[in-house]
Amino acid sequence: xxxxxxxxxxxxxxxxxxxxxxxxxxxxxxxxxxxxxxxxxxxxxxxxxxxxxxxxxxxxxxxxxxxxxxxxxxxxxxxxxxxxxxxxxxxxxxxxxxxxxxxxxxxxxxxxxxxxxxxxxxxxxxxxxxxxxxxxxxxxxxxxxxxxxxxxxxxxxxxxxxxxxxxxxxxxxxxxxxxxxxxxxxxxxxxxxxxxxxxxxxxxxxxxxxxxxxxxxxxxxxxxxxxxxxxxxxxxxxxxxxxxxxxxxxxxxxxxxxxxxxxxxxxxxxxxxxxxxxxxxxxxxxxxxxxxxxxxxxxxxxxxxxxxxxxxxx
Length: 314
Prior knowledge:
By secondary structure, the protein is mainly alpha-helical. It contains ten helices and two strands. The longest helix is centred in the N-terminal third of the chain and has 48 residues, at 2-49.
């Protein structure tokens, strides 16, 4: 009886110690270190630019970047780690690219609420996105989906660096970065350049998560039962690429009209004649044609693999 009480006390002490350590590492990695770097960054920005609001804005972006960067260090202390769990790479890949983009674009409306009508924040969406999106590459290094190794029980990258670079599911991540940069650069003087990509990223994030639920579940079941997952994994990659491709071309197709629509809505007179409207319409139609062309290429690319896998399995 006495030994049971001692064992129970030891277990409680162990759990309390683990909880205290978890609180400490949470505070260190996600509060203390990001805050210190943000404060140092603020003084550096203020020393260079002598502008309080701009320095605060850049220091907050710095805080967010460091916070995201150090989250992986804290993740291993969680009971159910997100990034250290190698089985959830598929859903994590969707979450990272969309959520970091959404987070970077939300920065602007938060600042606008505190300083409405200020011109300081026209380039803030572009700056925050161009900085924070680099976290995607960092996490994708640790979240490969090239193939699943049943012996190691984890996903790995493709065999060689050249194969990694050529894969559409990796190429589309960089193209996503370029398209968003182009869109935010083209529309920054509307002061609502963040709004359109924010809305569409939320929409396509929901769509991507919905399409991935069943396929990820099937892959998890196949892994648990030691069955091949090449077909399901290829289908996931195909849908993932098509989802991001749809997001990119939605932005490109509407981009020529954004300035016209925004200025018309807020009542700023613009000298757009009929010829210019025709030109931007043709540009949108060109983007639409390229979308169908790239979508056909992606379908053909992955269909070849699917046919080969099905033949090999049969």
